[in-house]
Amino acid sequence: MRALGIIPARYGSTRFPGKPLALINHVPMIVRVYKQVKRSTLLDEVIVATDHIEIKRVVEEAGGKAFLTQKDHETGSDRIAEVAEAFDCDFVVNIQGDEPLIDATLIDDIINKAQAHPQSVISAMTKIEDRASIDDPNNVKVVSNEEGKALYFSRSPIPYNRQGSKVNYYKHIGIYGYPKSILLQFIKWKPSTLETIEVLEQLRLMENNIPIHLVETNQQLIGVDNPDDIQKVEKLLEAQNNE
Description:
Radius of gyration: 18 Å
Strand order of the largest sheet: 5-4-1-6-10-7-11
Largest sheet: 7 strands, mixed
Number of domains: 1
CATH topology: Spore Coat Polysaccharide Biosynthesis Protein SpsA, Chain A
Helix content: 25-40%
Number of helices: 9
Number of strands: 11
């Protein structure tokens, strides 16, 4: 199975314009993400998919590979599909360009899981403990069966704990591994009913009978949504360096 890692990097973020070029300890965020992803032992190629020539230049100057996509893609999935069509691959891993702490072992775990479930999309989840994070609609929750197959994703706390039992809650991590054929189908489907209600793209897959299997991880990723998050990442990196 030839696996391609694609990192979508859009310049015009509403909350943080030019976000991929933001410096984290003097290194552009997209370069840091690219170098983290390149540590994967199972990806055959890693490409940054971007709509902006400056992002492409910065990645290439750092020794990376970048693909200049159309500017009018509505989602990151549309952007990575354009790149996937241009490359010879069987499996595509969509890695968020705003998670500079991504560990390549998670990517390898996703590719390994795909070997056991070749007709499934593979994603990831991590256990969450504190009530504020469980209730936060920005943290997408997921429930799965004993085999790790997703049953539902929601911004609400799921499952609802009516009996006050001990319940494990899991946060969905937005990394996806697709068989190339499923990815190219997925972007042609119209947004589904539940997807529109929850504003969760992965529900389109489930509503079209595409299974999603999950890798459980202890990685605590920090997504950079605004400039303040840069300081959080730098503090965590400093703490890791001092261990």
